[in-house]
What does this fold into?
Amino acid sequence: MGLYCLHLKADKDRCVNCRKCNTRCQMNLEVNALVQQNRMQHLECILCVDVCPHGVISYHWWRIGRSKDV
Ligand code: SF4
It folds into this structure.
């Protein structure tokens, strides 16, 4: 047993830097830059998942206290 929380992850190698994710971000973040820096853990509203035409951004469950995906 453990606690899990929903986070985002990105496959930066598939990103074409079109910046559509930036236009959808309600916090006005440069999501494309976060994708390239592998810093998706800071995003919570998840609107960028649906707008990316290349499926770069996806959901995943993260077990609290562990360093690996589940
Ligand atoms: S919308 Fe997708 S492909 Fe475009 S910059 Fe954002 S993550 Fe990259």
Observations:
- Residues 4-63 form a domain with the Alpha-Beta Plaits fold (CATH 3.30.70.20).
- The beta strands are 4-10, 57-63.
- Helices lie at 20-24, 31-37, 47-51.
- The pocket of iron/sulfur cluster is lined by residues 15-21, 31-32, 35, 52, 54, 56-57 (CB under 6 Å).
